[in-house]
Amino acid sequence: MEELHNSFKPMLTPKQMLHKGIFGGTYFNQLVDHRIFPRDWFDNLDESYYLSKKYLVKINLFKIKSGQSQEEWEAKGWIHKDDPRGWFEWYCKYYKGRRHEDDIRQIKRWLAFCGPKGRFRNSIYNKIYKSGLGIENSKDISPRIQQSLLHWSYIVNNEHYELWKLERQK
């Protein structure tokens, strides 16, 4: 289990994620009171970035709607009763030091999504590679995938892209 925890290396803190723009600003509009988290996470952040009643595409870093609804998350069994808003809520609490019975499942989900062998991480690097544009010009390549990766605390970067290319050559 310790090895699994050691493999969990999100790129951003919850505060950094919120300030970049995630979930169309709607994340804390229901089920979870944002005030249970450190006040400084929300310093200098307009409330529309986390308390919007309506999904605001303009809030998201990649200016695109990305993700599924609360109902879809629940239907797929992705919600633990202790974290009714899903993975990001779990991550916020994990980041603050909570360890929980759901840690293994959530870390495995993160690894499958954006870990070194993660489906979406590899998908975006493949698209970037095929475009020939390189990381520095990749913001417009599959913005929906990139916004989804941001929801999981991952941003494409040159270091991981170069490692991906090396793995691809094997």
Can you put this structure into words, describing what you see?
The protein is an all-alpha fold. The chain has 2 domains: 111 residues, no CATH class; 54 residues, no CATH class. Helix content is 44%, strand content 0%. The radius of gyration is 16 Å and the shape is globular. The two termini are 29 Å apart. The mean pLDDT is 95.
Low-confidence stretches: none
Integer tally of domains: 2
The chain-level mean pLDDT equals 95
Class computed from helices, strands and strand pairing: mainly alpha
Helix content: 40-55%
The profile of the biggest β sheet is:
none
Number of helices: 8
Q: What value does the Rg take, in angstroms?
A: 16 Å
Give the N-terminus to C-terminus distance in angstroms. 29 Å
Order of helices and strands: HHHHHHHH
Strand tally is: 0
Overall 3D geometry? globular
Q: Which descriptors apply to this entry?
A:
170 residues, mainly alpha, 2 domains
Question: How are the SSEs placed, and which strands pair?
Answer:
Layout: H1 2-7, H2 14-20, H3 70-75, H4 87-95, H5 103-114, H6 119-131, H7 143-151, H8 158-169
Short overview:
This protein has 170 residues and is mostly helical.
